[in-house]
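Q: For a teaching handout, I want to show students what a protein-ligand complex looks like in token form. Below are the inputs, and the small molecule is zinc ion. Please produce the holo structure.
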Amino acid sequence: MDVSEDRTEHWGGCLCGAVRFRIIGSPIMAGHCHCLSCQKLSGSGHAFHAMVGEEAFEVSGETRGFSWTADSGNTVTTSFCPTCGSPLFGRSSGYPGMVTFRVASLDDPSVVRPQMAVYAKRLQPWDHLDPGLPAFPGMPPASGGR
Ligand SMILES: [Zn+2]
Ligand SMILES: [Zn+2]
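A: Here is the structure, written as tokens, with zinc ion included.
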């Protein structure tokens, strides 16, 4: 199937509803990230991210951004709702033209399936890796890194 022909719309947003976003089509990549920054940002063991092209992403409502340096050395800007604080999506200098959004922000998060787990070396003893997914200690080889 040619993914570019997939024009299915998926809607998402923050907890309070002030920020809404729409993606068109299927994500290019989706996976669990166990890095320490994702642990901080989620208050949990990992975050579930999916990536789409900038042209497939549209946001409405005011967001605030926070920029930080990821383990990979890339500058990542995470955007969140200033009212309820939900982290929603981000952009990384390692992936120009791409937007990474939090899968759990979707109205129906079940439509996206993870393909991998990254930063498995940061796994907390109370979290676990999905045995059905490839797990990489850091970023997968040949990846720009997040
Ligand atoms: Zn909100
Ligand atoms: Zn991460």
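A: Two things your students might notice: The helical segments are 36-42. Residues 57 and 64 are 17 Å apart (CA to CA).
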